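To whoever is on call:

I kicked off a structure prediction for a single chain this morning and the downstream step that reads the tokens threw a length-mismatch warning. I double-checked the sequence; it's 371 residues and nothing unusual in it as far as I can see. Pasting both halves so you can look.
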Amino acid sequence: MRNNIRLIGLVVLIMEMASCASKTVVPPPPPVAVGVQVAKEGSATYFDLYPATVTALNQVDIKPQVSGNITGIFFKDGQVVRKGMKLYEIDQQQYKAAYEQAIANVHVAEANESKAQQDADRYADLAKNDAIAKQTLDHAVADLESSKKQVEAAKANVNSVETNLKYSIINAPFEGTIGISQVKIGTAVYQQTLLNTISSDDPMAVDIAVDQIEIPKFSQYLDKGANDKDSIFTLVLPDGSIYEKPGHLVLLDRAVDPQTGTIKARLVFANGKKMLKPGITTNIRVKHSASENSLLIPYKAVVEQLGEYFVYTANNGRAKQHKVALGTKINASVVVKSGLEAGDSVITEGVQKVRDSVAIQIGAPKPAAAK
């Protein structure tokens, strides 16, 4: 009986202690002290960078159309060649012999045609006086027609072998810079053997990939045309310097790449000093001049998470997270393309301490009250 009374008393004691513990209220954490700045619209000039590749407007691989040994090279590697300049010569002996043989065949065919013509004329005169059989005249006329066809075939063969003879000399198709020769004198070459490459020098093209959402903007640039006084497109060289000549947009490709969602845009730059070479990887800097619709905020307000950008604003004593699309950084500020509106109170101080919906206090924290 005593043990039961003790057990009941112990249970009552534990229940009273639990009741006291449940009445203890844990105070909420103090609000995070932050500093804010109002996002405002204003005029801004900034630049967007696009990875780019320099390419020749005109480039062609030099390949032979006949086979043989290289007997002549008439340029220096890397030389600027003019249109029609002689570049390579392939052994012409076999092609000259074939050409001379074809000419001789033409002469033989023409002689046979002349004889057949004489026979046909003579038999025609005799036939008028019924001095020969009509069949003899018919045969003579047929022989004449055959001789004429043989002359035509012989002349066609001359054109064929003459073409091969011409192909044994390879000339520059246009003015440009020729590369390093892939063959030497004496090298045996065949049809489609790569001999060299020629590319035009001035002007040069620069290609960039433009997101499909920017097509309307770049279409406006295309309609605007070139204007050196308002240079929209400048080229950033691999060493970081700015190319001395501005460029202009000449075309947008016919279709968007479905794999990347981008479209190729081609710009053209003057290249009188031959500084730009095909294959250079660089950047195109596109100038944007906005009058009143550029939203600028301090760059220190931006938080990056897994390649995405976020900004916190003060909203009724709470921090609110916004995903934003950023433009170009301008000194200590950055252009916000979307995600914020003018008048938003952007948290610029204490950003690393806040989270979405956390309580905040604008300004320095208040001192704790004296007990």
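Update from on-call: the warning came from a stale cache, not from the record. Cleared it. Sanity check on the structure: The helical segments are 2-22, 93-128, 134-167, 215-224.
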